Amino acid sequence: MSKSKKPGPFTLAAHAGFDPASHHGTVNPPVYHTSTVVFPTVELLERGEIKPFEGMRYGRVGTPTSKAFEDAVTALEGGYGAVVASSGLGACCAALLTWLNAGDHLLIADSVYGPTRAFASRVLTGFGVQVEYYDPQIGADIKALFRPNTRVVYLESPGSWSFEVQDVPTITELAKAQGIAVMIDNSWATPVYFKPLVHGVDLSIQAATKYIGGHSDAMLGVTTAPDREIYEKLKTGHVTMGQSAGADDIYYGLRGLRTLPLRLERHGQTGLALADWLAARPEVQRVLHPALPGDPGYALWKRDFSGCSGLFGVLLKPYSRAAVTAMVEGMTLFKMGWSWGGFESLIVPGFHLPTRSARTWGEGVLLRLHAGLEDIDDLKADLVEAFARLAAA
Known about the structure:
Shape: globular
Order of helices and strands: HHHEHEHEEHEHEEHHHEHEHEEH
Structural class: alpha/beta
Helix content: 25-40%
Number of domains: 2
Oligomer: single chain
């Protein structure tokens, strides 16, 4: 295509990291299962100890398989370089450990992914990092929380349970003016629908286990940096901590990425239609979906995002645990499972609302739904039968 024309997301997903000539003409890169890499000279052998972020040195450091995946993600993100990790949580933890030291202050969104919160509260505080949670809707007022030792602001927008949307451009601008690094977990939107690096974020983190992989069969994380300096620091941190991913999972991630925009479009359309339909149900107190007009985060979502995924929440009116249990345990298409982003629809009941410390958040039973790739009429029928069990229990 013309070099003057910027490719769209479907084209990028299909062709980024695509180099058949380097693999005897095969469309997909081979899966390199390797630990040891041999070198013909002492100079090349020792170079990997000096610059671990360059080239192929050891299976854990990188292979042609991981490079193809990282190149593809980098292109979608619009960054300088990406680094693969063993899982989404692995990518989150590696980024935080690389940037933080004892005595540093971390500001982290109160709506953050539960395991990331646990890591911050249990591990980082144990290492002497001062961890403070902030209201995800704080916007420009976050400036009042900055301290001389604030090193990182960690965002997740929207949150994967309560779905508040953060004012990423404003928070990032204020933090960067103070020399504070900004990281974001962007797994909900993926770089197809939100590009953090465009807004000045230093590290864009993906749980590639979810939408990028797309088939519930791989554990994978990936972080993208906007420039060489940040990339080298990130890569060196991963190598130093022994963070890596399995060759087959990386291959599945790249294969899933090829159809990411197409699948995400279907997930988003179905999820938004279900959210609108559920909002009119008498059993529902409130639907939590930032792309739904009337949602508190709608204006920010409309401004910053180009689409939505299939993950959203439903706050039920007061029902007993037994009634909600009967509702979810009898479902046919919506299965109970903690991850999301695969082809299948999921539902998880939150009898205990997400842990919050910056401010209290709602009351009631929160259902988290992921809209899969099934026919929407079949999903609605499954939910109609579920509401009948809820009422009868």
